[in-house]
Amino acid sequence: MVSSYLIDIARVSKHFQGKRAITALDSVTLRIDRGDMVSIVGPSGSSKSTPLNLIGGVDQPSAGEIRIDGRAIGLLSDDDLTRLRRDRIGFIFQFFNLLPSLNCIENVSLPLHLKGWPRKKVRDRARPLLEMVQLSHRMEHLPDELSAGERQRCAADRGTRRNVCGDERP
Ligand SMILES: Nc1ncnc2c1ncn2[C@@H]1O[C@H](COP(=O)(O)OP(=O)(O)OP(=O)(O)O)[C@@H](O)[C@H]1O
Ligand SMILES: [Mg+2]
What are the extents of the domains in the chain? Predict the structure, then answer.
């Protein structure tokens, strides 16, 4: 039966190989429904980022299955996975991951650019987001020219729901 959950993680394990092998996730099962707001809480190193990377399709599990909107993401082609990340997933990275050659507003609106939205519409969508986090006066600045807190807010803006357009047309 196809899962009706928004996020459905079934018996997922993640092992990191290296000098010292680590089992970060050991057969974890978790279901998240539409509208749920979920926090993953725990001490540093207790495997919070690991499942987020797997759900976001930026890393692959060692075992088990992850379904987003009923689709097993392990079975998607690279192109389909890229589209899923672009259209459905908003990521606020722990280490920001801003693109150094793009300015603040270009970083924030990257998902919409990639979707082919026209430049003006992209800027109109991104500007109020930057205003909300008091970054309107830094829109044209490169990440190198921002303070740590400004970079953090820029990265947070890029990950917001209003920026992840789903099936919305330009
Ligand atoms: N690429 C990797 N190679 C080897 N071990 C890794 C790798 N990534 C994470 N780990 C290990 O997996 C465990 C969980 O890492 P994870 O990044 O999920 O922790 P976290 O809960 O997000 O921690 P923090 O709160 O410090 O961000 C840690 O013990 C870490 O050392
Ligand atoms: Mg982490």
Answer: 7-88, 104-163
116: left (phi over 0), alpha (psi -120 to 50) or beta: left
Cα angle vertex 116, ends 110, 119, to 5°?
70
* Binding site membership of 16 for ligand 1 (Cβ less than 6 Å): yes
At 54-94, the pLDDT tens digits run 999 999 999 999 999 999 999 999 999 999 998 889 889 88
Spell out which residues have Cβ within 5 A of ligand 2, the ion.
49, 94
Per residue in 1-21, pLDDT (tens digit) is 566 899 999 999 999 998 899
- What dihedral do alpha carbons 52, 53, 55, 61 form, nearest 10°? -120
Q: Please give the class, per CATH, of domain 7-88.
A: alpha beta
Q: Which of 49, 53, 55 to mutate to test the pocket of ligand 1 (most atoms within 8 A of CB)?
A: 49
